[in-house]
Fold each of these.
Amino acid sequence: MSSSTPMSSSPRVPSSARTPEDLHAIIEEAFNRADLEAFLDAHDEQATVVVPPDGRSARGREEIRAAVAPLFALAPDMAMVVVKKLEADGLALTHGRWTLAVTEDGHRSELFGLGTMVSRRSQDGTWRIVLDDPLAGI
């Protein structure tokens, strides 16, 4: 089965978000493939992310990597839908509903929320996450 293939053997592809909504899909896919590098590539170098379930903040890709790696190790299964977008002058504010099911010690549990994401359009036209608070609506 392809899900047992290690993700480290796949080539890294930079974020190709052409719209702010694409970032939500990229994050969803990164969790579902347990692809931490794709998750990080969707973020600006100095992004700040609030990390569930405890709500601590991580800034910069290395801090974010350390903070979210435990979630990626729990066989995540994510679903996300964008419910609202506000965009102006190369910045976007999006809200998305999400669920994240994980398996820990043989038990499956589910996290959920309404998150808020701020993203910025790069000079090449792609979008990167600058601020991400998946717990904003809780």
Amino acid sequence: MVRLASEEFNWPVRVYYEDTDSAGIVYHASYLRFMERARTEWLRSLGFDLPDLSAEYEVLFTVSRLHIDYLRPAYFNDLLDVGVRLTRLGRASFMLEQSLYRAARDLLCRAEVRIACVDAMSLRPRAIPKAVCTELKRDS
């Protein structure tokens, strides 16, 4: 795996009532959905829409490992920034650092996520398509 230091991509997310528990605090699994949205938008910003990757290259990206640290709670109606930064690129996977901030860069949550590239039919590991690797490297 090649270590990289890409610029952080940020995606805004508003916390809705459905994201919280009965006390108005963001439920732990909601953070995973927020991070998924940011990863999807990051790839889209690089020119890759997930359905197109599947159709054109016959690959899917899947989370194969996740380490998450919850530092502070987020609450109903908070406006959050969800960050994505590419840190390592391998033949069939890449590593991302993700972070969630409230206004004024108040760090709420951080995660390290390994994304595996798999064959769309067999779901077995497969090399990341060259065009995708080229864009990921260009972003760093």
